[in-house]
Design brief:
This protein is an alpha+beta fold and 280 residues long. It has one domain. The protein is built from seven helices and eight strands, in the order H-E-E-H-H-E-E-E-E-H-H-H-E-E-H. The longest helix has 29 residues.
Length: 280
């Protein structure tokens, strides 16, 4: 079947990794893999919904592992890494992984998917994009929008509204809310991280298949300009260049980048490409 975005055959969820790269890979767990009677997922797979529930400790463990990894990579003791940095980086990684395949499905099929956190599963692994899987059928969050990769104001806006309803509100918003309540990181930073993840996915989609670049970036821009939770989190400063309006805090790992000891070059090199702290 031709994709609504004009980029070739519409991929099945399990084909996304081969088409766009490992950040887009999405496994499908068939019902026979779940253990009765409670329908437990296969060994090693964890419910994404648990990340939103502080009682499970799932996100806290992830943030702790990220903190240890950041410390090891920077030659620091774990307690020398600001908790806010670890929480922000952990949330950015999780949310970027969740939105990437959803954006690819949106621009290739014209159907923003309708995701349910209780039917999404992940493996808690560091060192790259963690495995992600569907545990049930994938339903669209609305009717297909023809011509998704065609530049224009209306199409990206409609796709963005479907993406908000089918992805951001049911899956990402509960995670952001839970992290904000239980960790010392503001919602501005957390939603900025989500916007950065969407923009990163748009960039990778466009690099993999240039015919899809306009559609992917159009949806990313519309998400930040619309009425959803990404409104004001960032925006496009060029047709395929995003700038967020917050900072993920990763620059604080470089001791030269704060405390008044950094040269301007060291400070800029410690910032992410899309960071608000960049100056012309």
């Amino acid at each position: 079947m031709r994709g609504a975005a004009g980029g070739g055959d519409s991929p099945a969820p399990s084909d996304l990794g081969a088409r766009f790269g490992p950040y887009f890979a999405l496994d499908v767990l068939t019902p026979s893999l779940f253990s009765p009677p409670a329908g437990q997922p296969p060994a090693g797979w964890l419910a994404v919904a648990d990340l939103c529930d502080p009682r499970t400790g799932a996100f806290a463990r992830r943030a702790g592992a990220v903190r240890a990894a950041l410390a090891a990579g920077s030659g620091l003791a774990a307690d020398a890494v600001d908790e806010r940095v670890a929480v922000s980086v952990a949330q950015l990684g999780v949310c970027a992984r969740l939105v990437a395949p959803a954006l690819a499905l949106t621009v290739t099929t014209g159907h923003p998917p309708r995701l349910r956190p209780e039917l999404l599963y992940w493996r808690d692994k560091l060192g790259g994009p963690f495995p992600l899987a569907l545990g049930g059928p994938l339903a669209p969050a609305g009717a297909a929008v023809p011509g998704a990769a065609v530049p224009g104001a209306a199409v990206p806006g409609r796709l963005a509204r479907g993406f908000v309803d089918g992805v951001l509100l049911p899956v990402v918003a509960p995670l952001v809310s839970a992290i904000e309540r239980h960790h010392p990181v503001s919602s501005k930073i957390l939603w900025g991280n989500v916007a950065s993840g969407v923009a990163g996915a748009a960039k990778m989609i466009g690099l993999a298949e240039p015919a899809l670049a306009a559609g992917a970036w159009g949806v990313a821009g519309a998400l930040c300009a619309g009425d959803g939770p990404l409104r004001g989190a960032g925006g496009l400063i060029a047709p395929a260049r995003f700038r967020r309006r917050s900072c993920c805090l990763i620059y604080r790992l470089d001791p030269r980048a704060h405390g008044g000891r950094a040269s301007r070059t060291a400070y800029r090199n410690a910032l992410c490409e899309d960071c608000v702290l960049h100056r012309p």
